[in-house]
User: Which sequence fits this backbone?
């Protein structure tokens, strides 16, 4: 059975990150989260370049920058000139994580974010990439992580 954390539990886990200056927002209507998503958020927040993390009902976004007019929205757009970020769509019903957006103007940081997602990640969940515009990045990640389990 999957472990779920209630709001009080995941807020307590996120407090040390917030105190260190990494903003982690969970939209207010969320009352519980799967432990896997909470752990994924903290592993991304552990990366020294990630400053903003946002968790919604079915998405997790993390970035080095946020939108100036929308301070709780991390920038994850592909080809952004300066933001290093990732957006993942997740389904608790189907136990999938879909790498929706990833951007890294600095070589190697995209791989670090994928490393953070997969470190200690449950094999009960299945990774996916719905649209691949990466010129081979996801092929390399598939070979490195759970190569037989991807939905591409």
Assistant:
């Amino acid at each position: 059975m999957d472990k779920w954390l209630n709001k009080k539990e995941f807020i307590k886990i996120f407090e040390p990150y917030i105190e260190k200056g990494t903003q982690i927002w969970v939209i207010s209507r969320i009352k519980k989260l799967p432990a896997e998503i909470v752990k994924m958020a903290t592993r991304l927040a552990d990366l020294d370049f990630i400053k903003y993390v946002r968790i919604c009902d079915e998405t997790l976004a993390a970035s080095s920058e946020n939108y100036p007019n929308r301070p709780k929205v991390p920038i994850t757009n592909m080809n952004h000139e300066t933001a290093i970020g990732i957006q993942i769509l997740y389904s608790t019903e189907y136990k999938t994580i879909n790498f929706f957006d990833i951007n890294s103007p600095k070589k190697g940081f995209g791989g670090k974010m994928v490393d953070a997602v997969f470190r200690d990640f449950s094999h009960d969940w299945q990774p996916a990439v719905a649209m691949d515009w990466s010129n081979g990045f996801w092929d390399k990640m598939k070979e490195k992580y759970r190569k037989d389990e991807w939905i591409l």
Remarks:
- The first strand starts at residue 4 and ends at 6.
- The chain has a mean pLDDT of 92.
- The two ends are 27 Å apart (CA to CA).
- Residues 4-142 form one domain.
